[in-house]
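## retry 2 of 3
previous attempt timed out at serialization; input unchanged, resubmitting
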Amino acid sequence: MTTYRVCFRILGLTVEPVALTAEFGVAPSKGHRAGDPVPKHPERKYSIGAWTVDSPLGESTALAEHLEQLLIILAPAAEAIKTRSRTEGWTCSFYCSIFGAEPAPKGELVVVPASILGRISDLGIGLEVVLYADDG
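## retry succeeded, writing output
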């Protein structure tokens, strides 16, 4: 069975999660500033800041549905995200992890409709997809 974990993330040196949350009106799933300690390794510091919103949908939900849900969540902040990412030079993306039992499941096709891809493109944001296969 193929499963999905999807998030929207902003990465950059000037990312300030508390300020972005207030500006965007959207609560992140997690966030940190550049220089904050890494929780599991407090002697280490994050080299860049991050503001991340995870899809609230279950891992068995199709990729397109995760993306649609995140676009709905982020809709109130869409213009601010678009503007700030350009002016700040942040890296913004929808980050998609796909986990499968085989390197290429037979007959399984992952499709993201053009309407969703268009909305992502209108934001000027990338779509990153990482495939993980269980070599068994």
